[in-house]
Amino acid sequence: MCSLSCLEAAGGSRKAKEWTDIPAEELSLETPRVDPFASAEFTFRSVEVDDSGPETRYVYHNRVRLFTEDGVRAWSKIDIEYASDWIVSGIRARILYPDGGVAYLGRHDVYQRETYRDGSRQFFVKSFSFPQLRVGCVIEYLWEVIRPYPIRGFDVLVRDEWPTWVYELSIRPNQIRESRCTGYHLRLPVERVGGRYWYRDSDLLNRATESFMDARRNFEPFVYLEYASERSMLDPDNYWAYRGGLVVEKNRGVTDGIDEGVVELAEHLYQGVETTVEKLVAAYKFCTDKIENISFYSDQYSVDELGALTPNEGPGDTVLNGYGTRYDINVLFASLAQLAECSAGLAEVENCLDFVYDPSAHGAFNISDWVVAIEMDNRWRFFDPGSAGLPFEVLNAENSDVHALTSSGDFFTIVKTPRVDDEFTKIDRFASLRLDVEGGVEGVVKVIYSGYAWLWRERYFSAMTLNEKESFVRRQDWGNRFTQVEVSEFEVREGSGVEGEFVMSYRISIPNYADCVGDRIFVNPSVFEAEKKGLFSGLERQSDVVFDYTINVRDRVTIQLPEGLSLGGAFPVLLEFDGEFLKRASRTEFNFVSGSIQFQCFSSLTETRVERGEFDYLKGEFDAVSGFDSQLVGLAKSK
C-alpha cells in the first residue's frame, strides 16, 4: 500500500477546476442503490475506446461510493493492472470526504510493481491510495491505456466486481476497415451515433464470483467489435464462410512458407522411417524437444532476452532460430506433416473455458485457438506441439471434444475434436502415517499426477524453485485445512511424454490431527480430504458449473497406532456412492496384527460441465461425498 505525501487542499488546487461536478445523489445517498448488501458501489463508470489510429487507446473514468467499513478496507488501495506491451498514463484521482473536503492524488503517489510473468510478457500494477478513508467517501479516478492495435477485433466486458449505477461505453472504430459492433447478454442494443458505437446502461449487478464458474462471455454482458476488409464478410449469413475462408488462406500460407531449411530437416527426420505415423512422431518430438517454446516459461531466456528476440516469419526461421511461439511451433509441425505426405494444416478450435461455440455468435472469441489438423484414414486427427508438455495427439482439455474449423484444399468444414478418455487424468495419493497418543500424525506422503493433472502442475511449477513448490503444497494441500502443519524432505520428479507423471514426495507432520476426548481418540482415515470445506457454499448459481477435466483419484492410507490404543467401536467399513456426476467407493479396515488402520478410496468426476439448472443435484452429490470423508474411527486407550 502506498501513502500520499503530496495531497493538495481543495481550495488551492488548480486541478480541482478540471473535474466536473458530481450529481447530488451520489454525494448524499447513504445506502446502496443496486445491491442492498453492497459495501461499495460504482456510481459511474465509463470506457472510451479510440481505435482510429495506429494503436488502441482506452480512457477509463470511475467513481465509487463507500457505504460500510468493509468497503473502506476493500478500497484502501487501488490497483491498475496492465501488461508489458501496454502503456498506462494520465492517472488522476481525487477523494471527496463526507464533510465536504477534497484531496487530490499527487504526481509522486503512484507506485508500480511487477506481479507475474507469462513467457515473454510481464504483468504489472500501478497502485495508489488515500489517507483517512472512511464511510461516505466518494473516490473518483481516471487513467489511459494504450494497447497494440487489434488485428481482428476486441471485446469489452460490461460488468465489474462492484455494482454500478451508471455505465457508459463509447467506441470509435478504425475507419479504414469495415466493422460491426455486437452486444451479447445486454439489456439494451448497441447504437451507432455518428462515427462511434455507443452503449449506456444503469443499475448493473457485480460480476459473478462463483467457484468453478463458466466463462464470463457465456452468461455475462459484453460488447464485441469485429473488423473485416469487406462489409459482406461481416454479414451474419456469410460470417462462417468468411471465417472458413480465413482458415483456407492461412493454410495456403503454411504450404507456401515451406523453405529449403524445412525440407532438409524433414529429410533428416524421416531418413529410415517407413510409416507415416512414425514420421509424425519424429516431427512432433523435434518440435517439442528441440524448439524452445517461448509462449510458456523458458529456462533458456530471461524475460529481457525474450522481449528482444526477433519474431519468426515462417517455419524456416523457427528451425534456424531454435525458438518459437505456440503458433510458430504448430506451423512448423504442420509443414513437416505436409512433407510426410499428409493432408495437414492449421485449424481454429473452440476454447470451451473461454466461450462455448455458438453459431449465432460472430466474433474471433468464438473458436479462437490454433492447433494442427491432419486428415488421415477418413478422419481428422488433431495435434498441438506448441502447447508445452502435451503428449502426441492430445489437445489441451479446453480444446478436446469441441468444435474445430479446418480446411482441405479450397474447402472448409466444422468438425469435433476427439474426447480424451475419462481414464486419462489420474491422481494416486499414498500416505504412511504414525499416530501419537496426543492425536498428532507424522509420516510420508507420495502423490502421483498423470494426464491433465500432471500437465497442469508441470506448467504451473515450471518457474518455481523447489522451496516455492514446497510452500505451495503446504499452503494449498494442507494449510487451508489445518492450522499447524509441517512439510519437510520435499522432492519432485517430473516425467514427460504419453506416460508423463509428476511425482511429489515429502514428510508431513500435523499436530492434533485426531480428536482426543477423555480416554478415546477419534481419527479420520481420509487424510487427503479431512476437514475440507464444501466445494459449493451458495444455494444458487448465475452460471453453469465448469471443471477443467474429468479426473480419477485413488487414495491409499495407512495409519500406524501407538501402543495402548485399540479399536473402540464399530465404524463404516464400506461406503459407496454412485451419482450422476460423482462416483466414490471406500474401504476402511482395522488390522489387528499390525495395529493399524488401512484406508482405500476411489473417486471420479465424470462430467466437466453441469448446467445451472442441475446445480442442486451436483451440490447434493458433493455434500454426500463430503459426509463420507468425515467418517471417524473411534479408538480407546488401554486402562
Report on the structure:
The chain has 639 residues and is an alpha+beta fold. Helices cover 18% and strands 37% of the residues. The strands form 8 sheets. It has a 9-stranded mixed β-sheet with strand order 1-6-5-9-3-2-11-14-13. β7 (111-118) and β8 form a beta hairpin. α4 crosses α7 (315-321), α4 crosses α8 (326-339) and α7 packs across α8 (326-339). The chain is globular and about 90 Å long. The model is unreliable at 1-17 (pLDDT under 50).
Key structural traits:
9-stranded mixed beta sheet, 639 residues, disordered N terminus, 11 helices, alpha+beta
Question: What's the helix and strand layout?
Answer:
Elements: E1 8-9, H1 24-28, E2 40-50, E3 56-66, H2 69-74, E4 78-83, E5 87-96, E6 102-104, E7 111-118, E8 121-128, E9 138-147, E10 153-157, E11 164-172, E12 178-184, E13 191-193, E14 196-204, E15 222-228, H3 239-256, H4 260-269, H5 276-289, E16 292-293, H6 303-308, H7 315-321, E17 323-324, H8 326-339, E18 343-349, E19 369-376, E20 379-383, E21 403-408, E22 411-416, E23 426-435, E24 441-450, H9 452-460, H10 466-479, E25 486-494, E26 501-510, E27 515-517, E28 520-523, E29 545-546, E30 551-560, E31 565-567, E32 574-578, E33 582-591, E34 596-605, E35 609-610, H11 615-628, E36 633-637
Parallel strand pairs: 2-11, 16-17, 23-30
Antiparallel strand pairs: 1-6, 2-3, 3-9, 4-8, 5-6, 5-9, 7-8, 10-15, 11-14, 12-15, 13-14, 18-19, 18-21, 19-20, 21-22, 23-24, 24-26, 25-26, 27-28, 28-36, 29-35, 30-34, 31-36, 32-33, 33-34
Helix pairs in contact: 4-7, 4-8, 5-8, 7-8
